[in-house]
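Notebook, p. 212. Picked up where the previous page left off. The plan for this session was modest: take the two constructs that came back from the sequencing core last week, fold each one, and keep the raw output in the notebook itself so nobody has to go hunting through shared drives later. Recording the first one now, exactly as returned: residue sequence, then the structure token string.
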Amino acid sequence: MELGQTLAEYVKRVTLDKVPQRDIDVAKLAILDQVGVALAGIGEDPGVKVQAMVDRCTANEATVLGTPRKTSTWLAALVNGTLGHTLDFDDCSSFGHPSVVLVPAMLATGETQDRSGRDLLEAYIAGYEIGEALSRIVPRRPDQFHGLHSTAMFGTLTSATVSGRLLGLDESQQRHAWGIAASQSGGITGNFGTHTKPLHGGIASQAGVIAAELALSGFESNPDALDAPLGYIYSVVAAGRMEGVDAGKATAGLGQWHIADTWRLKKYPCGYIAQGAIDAALRFREQSGLRLEDITSVEIRVPHLQPYFRVRPVGEFSGKFGYEYPVACAILDGEVIKKTFSDAAFNRAELKRHLGKFKTLEDPHSKSKGPFGVLVIEAKGKTIEQPIEIPLGDAKRPVPPAQVVEKYVRNAAEVVGPEVAKQTAQMLLKIETLSSIRPVLDLLAKRA
């Protein structure tokens, strides 16, 4: 029953002078990227509908990105988290989508507490490392975790870490916050391809903010809720399958720092698993000069076909969680961008008449062709094999920081204009020098 205490003591010890510069630099890029993809999600159905509900609240505490209005801390986290996951353009790591739950909690609590940019950055890093620690306890299965979405499952605790750190919770209070958050964790992968998947990010971030604020007020939970009998690990993460579960794996890596080695940026606004296949399709298009009408068939052969990535492409959201639709669009259009995943793009006759040529197969032997499988393309009487490589943006193939900034400016400019986008990019890249996050949020909320 020492897991919670060990993790809580660790959270208190995280300071920038202990973190390698490469991890600090990646953490700042992650924060920047998340704010940008949240802004790009404004106007899409999930955020519009959640915002409409939140507008019924009269609180005036924390910023909702892209609008001058404020709301309560937890509702700001709900909206900003939902916006940040709407396009599925946000980052990935070993414990799901980290920044979509960490950043909304960080902004909401950091703004209301008027904490410095350094404080926010340290809280983000602490939350990220707690997520990494928890994800080591139980190996991830092909269905993620018995059908639960890792982002929703780990996100409540990681966002509670961020808010708890910024609220100045002591070790006991932080353990209570995790216990409260643990009872709010979960989100089913059966909702992938619908409005509800983006909501997972919003709910997880909101839950962490609520948990931390309740703990600060003296609200109690089981302080050993993480590893107690019938607790978080047993009930949620392992679902009663305790063989091989080792809480010691969570604490063994504390202080080793994992951000630079696990953070994955997305180039395309869809499920991470398809990123390498899209790259392969674009390489095929460029190298062969062939077009969709020249192709007889495309088999997307992958070593493992996760159950949650078999969503039939029947519209804008569902198209993000399979291989066939984005690969077909890559060959047809030569790009996969935000508008690719719109009903208008999906319903194009020139796409729909060719989509049946694409098929995804689980083939363990495909790994011999490429790390993530291979595209087997029949075209004009020839068979062309295009390896699916590790995508650019993976921790093993990091993109230059300038490309992260470019992605942010492109996304943010849709809402705040190019000049404010560039200005806020520079501010966020130097977040540790800011005395307060409020001037940045004023710009992003179009109050300044």
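Okay, moving on. Second construct, recorded in the same format:
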Amino acid sequence: MTENEQPPFTEENSPTDGTPAVRSLRELIDRVTGRSLESAVPQEDAGIADVVPFPFLALVGQPEMKLALLLAMINHNMGGVLLIGPRGTGKTTAVRSLPELLPQAPRSLCYYGCLPEDIEAGGVDAVCPDCAKKYAEDEPLAVLDQVRLVELPLNARLEDVVGGLDERAALQGQIRLRRGILAQADRNLLYVDEVNLLSDEVVDAILDAAAQGYYLVRRGPMSSTYRARFVLVGSMNPEEGRLRPQILDRFGLRVVVRGLPNRDERLEAYKRAHAYLTNPRQVSAEFSDASILAQEDIQAARDLLPQVEIPDKVSQQGLELVERLKVDSLRAEITMFEAARAHAVADARLKVTSEDLLTVAPMALRLRRSNFIDDYFTQYEFEEQELTNILDDIIPQKKPKKKKGA
């Protein structure tokens, strides 16, 4: 596929209701957002708990929040998304509506989690002997499976998060470790609601796993290392407390979610919420075709992402932006450029433009400066200059001798 070719949306896989085909994921989102719902018919209550998530494409307004979540599904190298806003603005609803759009990812068929990408990065020595043999015999090491949304409960204990001794095995006189939530989130989305209310030890465990892509569990004589390569999505209400700077820096995109300012949008949001509460299956069915198209395009964008390039002119603009904002964290550039690549491929392009940078830069760079760090370095520079002056006064530095004839 070249830079000017169209994305996966074509006449062949466009809706069959007479609507014209769309040319990109962003165009599909914009079109579906403005669509009206049919009147919902009440659904008979059978008394069975069957959770039907609110369709992502049925969310009204909040374009930045929806865009950030879509970019995170396309490019896991962005560093995840943090949604910041008051109660009732749709943060949790938006995240829990993602499973129907999530792409596929390779799942290892090996007990140790070996993947083909391990061999590509480090050769056959990077996988276990069984997988090395499979690779030599051209047998698959993994299968494609749907990415899942794994939620971290607010009341989760550290053992729930990282894992611990298997209690069932212990009853049978055996000692065995069980996987924790972080290991279950490997190659999935990990959602942490009210992330600012987590205990320090749980936050530290998440930080360690997010930074390394794996973590170690040691219980007595037993120890095990688990893979934990996940996309971190968090939400928080700033009224309930601030987020520790260490974990705030781990989130790539930061989205401030406010209430809908437009009356028409608020009324439409109410109508959709009412229809969903009346008959969630009917509302889900109305958006099912568009959701399938969006999922397919997210998958295609994810597959094409390695081909997306950033021209030198655009990268220099991004670096100048970070420099003028005086942002110290190198994650600022990583997030901004990776988000720009995802935004370009979502719009059916293989080359990043300045417009991509313009769209993602606010989400990537906001809340990255620290008044404390600024004051700290100001004080440091003052003391450093004072120390230099005193040293020069006590131990004058010898000036270099000029060469003859110079």
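Notes on construct two before I forget. The radius of gyration is 26 Å.
Flagging for discussion at group meeting.
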